[in-house]
Every structure is written in C-alpha cells, then in structure tokens.
Specification:
Blueprint: H1 20-24, H2 31-44, H3 57-64, H4 68-80, E1 84-87, E2 91-94, E3 100-103, H5 110-117, E4 121-132, E5 148-158, E6 161-171, H6 180-184, H7 187-194, E7 199-210, H8 213-218, E8 226-236, E9 241-249, E10 254-257
Parallel strand pairs: 3-10
Antiparallel strand pairs: 1-2, 4-5, 5-6, 6-9, 7-8, 8-9
Helix pairs in contact: 2-4
Length: 262
C-alpha cells in the first residue's frame, strides 16, 4: 500500500508531546481508550486519509506516556475494526475511514443488509452454471458424488467499488428453479418464500488467504495481497445441506463482529 501522507496532529494548536493534555480536560479515560479514540477521530474525520501512516509505537508511547503494550492494544483494535493495517517493516496505515460491520451471529443474506450499506449498492452475476459435485467440493458439500450443483458467482459493489465476491454452490435437487434473475436479487427470499423451505443453521469459518485469480479479476483490491474469506455450509431445518458459499471480502471495507457469552 502506497502511503499518501504522514500522520499529523489532530489538534494543531498543541504540540504532539502535549496530546495528553486533551484527556485532562475530559472525563478520565484509560490510556488505551484515549489513544484509540484520538486515532479513530483522526481517521473518521479524514484528518488521516486512506493510505496515511499512523504514528509509530515509539511516537505514541512518548506522546501519551504509555507502555508499548497499551499502544499496541489501541492499534490492534483499529486493525480489528478495519480502520488500519500493519505493513511489516513500514508501519501502520489507514485502510478505511468508514468500514462496514458484518455481524457473525446470524444467517443474513446480502440483500437483507442493504439498508445498512447505503444507497449505492448493487449485485452483478458474473457466472451462472451447473456442474457435477466432484473433486474438492466433496469436502464441503454433504451430498452424493455427481449430484448437480448450481454454481453462482456474484460481485457486490458498494459506492461503486467491487468489494465482495460471493461464490455460491447450491445442491440443485434441494434448491430447484434457481435462475440468473433470482441470483441478482435474493436467493434466500426465493428459498423461504417461494420454495417454502426453512433455513436453520450454518457452519462458518473465517480466514485471511492470498488473493486468487478470481479475486484479481472481480475485486478492486488496490494492491492488497490478501482477502478475508467467510465460508458457510448452510443447512435446512430437516438437516439437509443446501449450500456451500465463499464470500471473499476486500480488506479495506469491512470488519466482523460477534457477541460472546459465558
């Protein structure tokens, strides 16, 4: 990623060494929260633009009189929420000023997330074909070898950028009647409303993987070497698996969240 600008003090009336003065004028907060909040404010207000380098750990330690562990915790939180990315040997850079949160606790179609994503959202079906269930797909789909599979590749655009590539595999005997037109809208709505089938649960994995040829062809990667892949094996209420999907996300647009209970 090519840096666009060095970090600038979000409070120009103060010297960098005196940033801790800001916290003294506000209700007390931990050093970690103070560092995180100040950096986040600089990113979301675009004082730090996408591609800009954040201050180094040493600079932040000196500015806030904080330990390295505290500084790292704040930067890691920015990374987890999709605002920043560390580049080995170069520093930490702004990824996005407004990443989109995807919650992992439920089974939600892309169409159902539209209201949270803004007005400029679209889907393009770039492949719609039928193939036999064989090879590596047998590891992901619990159906008889040779069964007919409907494979669909869909590119999701947000604000004009291609940021998600969905590669869907549906068991054709379980989900009959799929068409390109249905795929351009909501397949889950078709399953639940037209076929009257009840979607029950999914087994899900999330991993960062090197970009593939498909990713390079269909996503606006802007030099990113990896993508985040959310894989789902999804089942109906009667226990039949009907889908295996890989949703391949660019690094700069999303962060993922969940709620854990003890």
């Amino acid at each position: 990623m090519k840096p666009k600008a060095a970090w600038t003090n979000p409070y120009p009336a103060l010297k960098v060494q005196n940033l801790e003065y800001i916290a003294a004028q506000s209700p007390p907060m931990s050093k970690y929260n103070q560092i995180y909040s100040d950096l986040l404010a600089s990113i979301t207000t675009e004082r730090l633009e996408r591609g800009a380098r954040l201050p180094s750990e040493t600079e932040l330690m000196d500015s806030y009189q904080a330990s390295r562990g505290t500084v790292r915790k704040a930067i890691e939180q920015l990374q987890e929420r999709g605002f920043a990315q560390k580049v080995h040997g170069k520093g930490t850079f702004v990824l996005s000023t407004n990443p989109i949160e995807f919650q992992l606790g439920g089974i939600v179609s892309f169409q159902e997330t539209y209201p949270r994503l803004g007005n400029d959202v679209s889907t393009e079906v770039v492949e719609f074909t039928q193939i036999p269930l064989e090879g590596s797909l047998l590891e992901h789909i619990k159906a008889q070898e040779g069964s007919l599979i409907t494979r669909i590749k869909r590119v999701r655009r947000i604000d004009g950028k291609r940021v998600i590539l969905d590669i869907n595999h549906f068991v054709s005997d379980v989900i009959p009647g799929l068409s390109r037109d249905i795929a351009e809208h909501s397949i889950y709505a078709f399953i639940e409303q037209t076929l009257q089938l009840q979607i029950a649960y999914a087994q899900r994995t999330i991993e960062a993987v090197p970009r593939s040829k498909d990713d390079q062809q269909h996503l606006d990667l802007d030099g990113q070497s990896h993508v985040i892949v959310v894989s789902n094996q999804t089942f109906l209420q009667d226990g039949r698996q009907f889908e295996y999907t890989e949703s391949r996300h660019t690094l700069d647009k999303f962060y993922f969240s969940d709620v854990a209970r003890r």
